[in-house]
Amino acid sequence: MASDMTLGFLGILRETPKIFSKNVRLMASLTLLNLLLLSLFFLSNVFSTKPFISDLVNKAFLIPVTDPKSTEFAYLLIGLMQDLRVFIGLEWTYAIVITATSLFFSTATIIASAATHGGESLFFKELLLSSLKSLKRPFFTWFYITLLGLGYSFLVLENLLPMMLIIQQPIASKALLITIGILASILYNYLGVIWALAFVISVLEEKCGIEALGKAAQIVKGMQLLGFGLNIVFTVSSSILFQALRLMTIKQSTVLPIVIGLLVVNSICLVKMFWWMAYTVFYYQCKETQGEEVESQDRILYSKVPTAPILNEP
To answer: Are 193 and 228 a contacting pair, CB within 8 Å?
Structure first.
């Protein structure tokens, strides 16, 4: 059983790059557009927030050495609050834009992967339009998945915080934190198999939300360890890349941290695209294992296109 799982896992990893090679033009166009928009958003966020961060730091240093009864102190405090509100507003805007963009390109990646995996032709314009039309279902599923993830996080914190308060020794407290963090991450990745598969289902089938989660739990039976392996690979790869963001704090250069940030963000984007491509292959393997008919991607893309009525019909 373990050897079959290993072969199945390696088979998914071997099959995933073939999706790109089967339709280089489509996948390359999608990848380049994704990277271009992500880079533009990243740079706009960096350069729009940089003046406010510098101003916040300067005012934060001046406030402790300023007489609280002076008008200068009041001006500094008011200016600090105004800068903070603008900074938070910019960050919220950036988060919303990035989330919406990520949802769109995740949907597009899954549709392109499904069409290419099935040997069906799909033009780039058709891909963008079909992704836009299909976005409602993935959005609802993403919303449910986000709620489940938040609920899981609160449950972990609810059990962790009392333990941290009881244990007073720093070494024991740190060891407990690391242990629970690792166990919680492992369980999260295991549960995430159904959540990620539900997102794929919401893109490729006429299902979303609870219905997609139920379908995912149904077809993943006996295959969840394969999805768990994919999640672990994605989590480890992303974690390693995130560690490189620490280099953005280099003070010897102003350009180098931005370049490093761009490289890391784009690398994470590529890893995420590969992950969705792998999960699309995994979705079809689950359906075949459960004996379900694999639906034609052309039928999914064009099933909602209305047909023109026949004129002069007797």
So the answer is: yes
Show the beta-strand stretches assigned E in 227-295.
Answer: none
Among candidates 278, 293, 298, which has minimal Cα distance to 196? Answer: 278
Nearest of 38, 147, 181, 17 to residue 101 by alpha carbon: 38
Cα-Cα-Cα-Cα dihedral of 93, 235, 228, 154, to 10°?
A: -60
Long-range contacts, 95-102 (Cβ 8 Å, 24+): 97/41, 98/38, 98/41, 101/34, 101/37, 101/38, 101/41, 102/272
How far, rounded to the nearest angstrom, does the alpha carbon of residue 141 sit from its chain's CA centroid? 13
Q: What is the pLDDT along the chain (314 residues), one digit of tens a residue?
A: 555 555 577 888 888 888 888 888 999 999 999 999 999 999 998 888 888 888 888 877 887 877 777 788 788 888 888 888 888 888 899 999 999 999 999 999 999 999 988 888 888 999 999 999 989 999 999 999 999 999 999 998 888 888 777 777 778 888 888 888 889 999 999 999 999 999 999 999 988 889 999 999 999 988 888 889 899 999 888 888 877 766 656 555 677 778 888 888 899 999 999 999 999 999 998 888 877 665 555 445 544 444 344 344 33
Three-state SS for 161-180 is HHHHHHCCCHHHHHHHHHHH
The pair of structure tokens assigned to 103 is 């949802």
Residue in the block written with tokens 């390359």: 28
Alpha carbons 81 and 79: distance in angstroms, whole number: 5
Return the closest-CA partner of residue 265 out of 21, 7, 18, 36: 36
